[in-house]
From TrEMBL:
<dbReference type="InterPro" id="IPR036821">
    <property type="entry name" value="Peptide_deformylase_sf"/>
</dbReference>
<keyword id="KW-0648">Protein biosynthesis</keyword>
<comment type="similarity">
    <text>Belongs to the polypeptide deformylase family.</text>
</comment>
<feature type="binding site">
    <location>
        <position position="150"/>
    </location>
    <ligand>
        <name>Fe cation</name>
    </ligand>
</feature>
<keyword id="KW-0408">Iron</keyword>
<comment type="function">
    <text>Removes the formyl group from the N-terminal Met of newly synthesized proteins. Requires at least a dipeptide for an efficient rate of reaction. N-terminal L-methionine is a prerequisite for activity but the enzyme has broad specificity at other positions.</text>
</comment>
<protein>
    <recommendedName>
        <fullName>Peptide deformylase</fullName>
        <ecNumber>3.5.1.88</ecNumber>
    </recommendedName>
</protein>
<dbReference type="GO" id="GO:0006412">
    <property type="term" value="P:translation"/>
</dbReference>
<feature type="binding site">
    <location>
        <position position="146"/>
    </location>
    <ligand>
        <name>Fe cation</name>
    </ligand>
</feature>
<dbReference type="Pfam" id="PF01327">
    <property type="entry name" value="Pep_deformylase"/>
</dbReference>
<keyword id="KW-0479">Metal-binding</keyword>
<dbReference type="GO" id="GO:0046872">
    <property type="term" value="F:metal ion binding"/>
</dbReference>
<feature type="binding site">
    <location>
        <position position="104"/>
    </location>
    <ligand>
        <name>Fe cation</name>
    </ligand>
</feature>
<dbReference type="InterPro" id="IPR023635">
    <property type="entry name" value="Peptide_deformylase"/>
</dbReference>
<feature type="active site">
    <location>
        <position position="147"/>
    </location>
</feature>
<dbReference type="GO" id="GO:0042586">
    <property type="term" value="F:peptide deformylase activity"/>
</dbReference>
<keyword id="KW-0378">Hydrolase</keyword>
């Protein structure tokens, strides 16, 4: 089932997510719905707060980037990179900071350069509640960091300079009022 994506200004996007256990109600259905919602919006990541749940769950699928010529050198790694992250905790961020133009399904029509470290070590549970500690670099680390921010109540716009924040303020206010045109299901703040 395709769920409405919460728009900028919804209070749930600012909540730090709570850990869940394997008895979380209808967890597999929720995960399936999150992937379906993400795909219907042409996204490569989606966090539970974006669908109104303040829990530590996000999904990523960067396989569409395997076709992008910018990632031809890592296409093999991207091709099957579809993961579920439950109760994730980034343990370490290392390497040079690099800028990348980010966007967000909750903040349509706003894209800005964000600096992030190039490599992360993250501990998480998969959909079977098996524990993993893994290292990711390149665009995979970037997508995970972006979605991880969501479960920490952080949006990519929080990483912008004061000047950039002022420049996008008008667009953000329009999004909060529902004055944006998207081709996916959205729920705007009241």
């Amino acid at each position: 089932m395709i769920l409405p994506i919460r728009a900028f200004g919804d209070p749930v996007l600012r909540k730090v997510g709570k850990n869940i256990d394997k008895d979380y109600p209808e967890l597999q259905e929720l995960i399936d719905n999150m992937f379906e919602t993400m795909y219907s919006a042409n996204g490569i990541g989606l966090a539970a707060p974006q669908i109104g749940l303040d829990i530590r769950l996000f999904v990523v699928d960067v396989s569409p980037l395997a076709e992008d010529e910018d990632y031809i050198d890592i296409a093999g790694e991207l091709k099957d990179f579809r993961k579920v992250f439950i109760n994730a905790k980034i343990l370490e961020e290392t390497g040079e900071e690099w800028k990348f133009n980010e966007g967000c399904l909750s903040i349509p029509d706003v894209r800005e350069d964000v600096k992030r470290k190039e490599t992360i070590i993250i501990e998480y549970l998969d959909e079977n509640f098996e524990k993993h500690t893994e290292t990711f670099s390149d665009i995979r680390a970037r997508v995970i960091q972006h979605e991880y921010d969501h479960i920490e109540g952080i949006l990519f716009t929080d990483h912008l300079s004061s000047l950039k924040k002022k420049l996008v303020k008008g667009k953000l206010q329009k999004i909060m009022k529902g004055e944006t045109d998207v081709n996916y299901k959205m729920r705007f703040p009241k």
